[in-house]
Specification:
alpha/beta; Rossmann fold; five-stranded parallel β-sheet; 8 helices; 5 strands; SIS domain-containing protein
């Protein structure tokens, strides 16, 4: 991600922090990061009118910069030209091969067309994890395990800006887990009785 993009993301974060949307974007980014563990298993698809090129590039950057090979997406295209490079020639038939352990990430700024919804439903039935970034598509949201809707009433947040935030959140390390009661009791016990010595 270039410095201008980084500055834009920081500005968006500051503006949106008070709205609660930023927290939802972080949760969605964590869900994306947690589900995209298999190299080549993150399938990214848009609509015929909008292929998510920029999101694919940003996720690829986050994958490389944070050593998260599963976050590098396979861009699935509606009508890839036969002479395109191999990584840009992946068509919708790839969705039909989606299986358990893979993630299908659908990005739809408009209404998802029926052929896409059918393929998403099939992928869900075969065990793929479905994530959706949309602008309020109820049918798509109903098929997704995790969905994030870009609010139309938030003038500072464009659909493109939302994709920047999600990709940045997916690349962030999860916050350190706070010690639970069991951890604290174990430390207290060790303090009181001394460390356990093996035989």
């Amino acid at each position: 991600m270039g410095s201008v993009d980084g500055d834009q993301v920081m500005m968006l974060r500051e503006v949106l922090a008070a709205t609660g949307w930023l927290g939802r974007a972080r949760e969605f980014g964590r869900a994306l990061r947690g589900s995209a563990r298999t190299p080549g298993g993150l399938l990214l698809v848009g609509t015929p009118a909008g292929e998510p090129w920029h999101l694919a590039a940003h996720l690829d950057d986050e994958s490389r910069l944070n050593d998260l090979p599963g976050l590098s997406p396979t861009l699935v295209r509606w009508s890839p030209p036969p002479d395109a490079p191999a990584h840009l020639r992946v068509g919708l038939e790839r969705l039909e091969a989606a299986r358990r352990g893979e993630t299908l990430f659908v990005v739809a700024a408009g209404e998802a067309p029926v052929p896409l919804l059918e393929r998403v439903d099939d992928a869900r039935r075969t065990g793929a994890t479905i994530l959706a970034l949309d602008d309020g598509d109820r049918e798509l949201g109903g098929l997704a395990h995790e969905a994030l809707t870009v609010p139309s009433d938030q003038p500072m947040l464009t659909f493109d800006g939302a994709q920047h935030l999600v990709s940045a959140a997916a690349g962030e390390a999860a916050p350190a887990r706070r010690p639970g009661l069991r951890d604290r009791l174990a430390r207290l016990l060790e303090t009181v009785s001394g460390p356990t010595v093996g035989d």
